[in-house]
Design goal:
It contains seven helices and 16 strands. With 288 residues, the protein is an alpha/beta fold. The model has no long low-confidence stretch (mean pLDDT 93).
């Protein structure tokens, strides 16, 4: 398995972790929220944790609320590699950005550099959330198709793109069930030079379509296999969180794409002034 790197960016930092929580800085504000992987003891004193601008308070297994200090805003923007992304703490403890994905953002940029002879290569981003990967790719010259089944996430992503200065021609926004969309694209004969997947364990589509990882990942990857352009350096990336499978399972699935390089491993966040790494899910990559 590969040891994926994590490229740092100035607007984010994991300050500490432990006792089932993590302490993070997004721009000017410090957030304290649960993380089941943080089984160790925190490094910083409790007063540092107590001083966080936002603390997530769980109310049920479905979510909770944020306790704030002073006049903390409901949302704010941070800069990531030239893009402007909105951070907004939600009742589901998410904030609109998964910083561990910086490893994949960098890797997609490296793949783009290998395709400089292709004018405006096509990237399909499914389960695309609030669009960081789509926006960074569009800024790098990709023609992006961004697919998500949650309207609030899609609207959030479009706002991020607009405030990052991208024109409407750079990204095609699709409010759709990812599996159905991919299968329709196969029937249309469309091809993509890169495909990104970040599926949840369970979800619902716009029309109530059920997504269950173990039931639907195989047909989705089969559609992706047919959608992937046969050109050198075309690629597929699949990343997941809180799913009880080994990254080797994802690596084996991507070997069905044929000749090419396959690697798998963990996504992680480096902790400030420490050798500690916070695990943040699994990832596998295929490239021709």
């Amino acid at each position: 398995m590969s040891n994926f790197n994590h490229p740092a960016f100035a607007s984010y930092q994991l300050l500490d972790s432990g006792n089932g929580e993590k302490l993070e800085r997004f721009g000017e504000y410090v957030l304290r929220r649960p993380d089941p992987q943080a089984l160790w003891r925190p490094s910083l004193e409790s007063k540092v944790w107590t001083a966080a601008d936002y603390k997530f308070v769980r109310e049920s297994d479905r979510g909770g609320k944020w306790a704030t200090a002073g006049k903390s805003p409901k949302s704010w923007n941070i800069k990531v590699n030239g893009s402007s992304l909105r951070i907004s703490p939600t009742p589901f403890k998410h904030v609109g950005l998964f910083p561990e994905q910086a490893s994949n953002w960098q890797w997609v940029a490296e793949q783009r550099n290998k395709m400089r002879d292709i004018n405006e290569p096509k990237l399909l981003n499914m389960f695309a959330y609030t669009g960081a990967a789509s926006i960074l790719a569009a800024q790098d010259g990709w023609q992006v198709t961004h697919v998500d089944a949650a309207r609030p996430s899609l609207d959030w992503a479009a706002q991020n793109a607009a405030q990052s200065g991208l024109s409407d021609k750079c990204i095609r926004w699709m409010f759709d069930d990812c599996l159905k969309f991919a299968q329709r694209e196969v029937r249309r004969g469309n091809k993509y030079h890169g495909i990104l997947l970040d599926p949840p364990h369970y979800g619902r589509g716009p029309k109530g379509e059920k997504w269950q990882f173990e039931e639907h990942i195989a047909p989705l990857l089969e559609a992706c296999r047919q959608l992937l352009a046969p050109t050198p350096n075309s690629f597929v990336v699949i990343s997941t969180y809180a799913i009880g499978y080994s990254p080797l399972a994802f690596e084996n699935m991507l070997r069905d794409f044929g000749d090419g390089k396959v690697e798998s491993g963990e996504l992680w966040l480096p902790q400030k002034d420490s050798e500690r790494r916070l695990p943040c899910g699994f990832c596998a990559r295929f490239s021709r």
